[in-house]
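Here is a complete protein record:
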Amino acid sequence: MHLAAHFPGVNNTTVWTEGGPEALGNQIGFDSFVHLARTAERGLFDFFFLAEGLRLREHKGRIHDLDVVGRPEAITVLSALAAVTEKLGLAATVNATFNEPYELARRLAGENFRRGGFLDRADRYTRAAEFVAVARTLWDSWPEGERAPRPFAYRGEHFDVSGEFSLPRSPQGRPVVIQAGDSDEGREFAASAADIVFTRHGTLDAGRAFFADVKRRLGAYGREPDSLKIMPGVTFVLGDTAAEAQERAVEVRRQQITPQNALLALEQVWGVDLSSYDPDGPLPDIDPDPESRLTQGRVRHADPFALAERWRALSREKGLSIRETVIEATGRQSFIGTPEAVAAEMDAFVQEDAADGFILVPHLTPHGLDEFVARVVPLLQERGSFRTSYEGTTLRDHLGI
């Protein structure tokens, strides 16, 4: 089993109300990054993952203030964490649309964007595939053991670069590529270019279907099934008894989805100001605005009409208010129970080909991973499902690729 840690914050999964006023500073304070990364390394995790927003988030013309609106630049944070960890892999979002391969290849080997404007959705994976190909051309142009680079040249639809790469090959050859995206194009891109897929398929049946679909695509690219690790992002809530864990999980969800966050979630689907609605009342009977620019700095739902109808159906079926609907529809507590039960369920996912491992997203910053490492990791080790020591020094070693 492979385990990784995700630093929470740029979403509504963080519980803000625990820890008092100082808890707010924990969301971007460097000590928080250090604590979570060192906890993950103590738990022998493969890597620490940091998502990145490309701009400050805005809602209804104001800087968003219901969760983290931004954070320090990801590669800068990981560079600093490299100084305070030894073997833990370090991973971050890097946007292929707004970066250049040569610049990124240099940054990973050792106003933010040269080009402006967005790409059509259909073109993003085309550029991403070419982006990875160019970066790999650069990294591979200095063969292992040689004292100088070989000239490189690449000409394609999006990039035209040539020359010599000035940095020698790193100990793991190439950085590990992690892909997130569930469309058919995303799955095909993962099969062709990624080492890890970060997925949201959290149930056993959905996980097995996704696992089988992506793994079967690898043969077309001359790859073996184990060369791509499928790692869903998951949450967890532990308790000394099953009942205690369920009680804690309910409380966590209510803390995550406050009345204000419930209306925010609804506005991001409908694209209109819903501040006049009661969070404890029924869902709006108006249609979403597909052209809305109410929210900036985050991805808009691809089909707001379909999502709104699913939420309405859920509300009608169970008699739920706005807040209750959002809690039900967006719940992400993947593993809830005693440490023994959680270890067994996680193990089952891996043994039954629903995942190769998990990227854990704790709901507290920075101590949310502590209990898992102390209480669940030893049980996974007793089962023989998780390492008892690091056997290599690079992330590729940890992943076995």
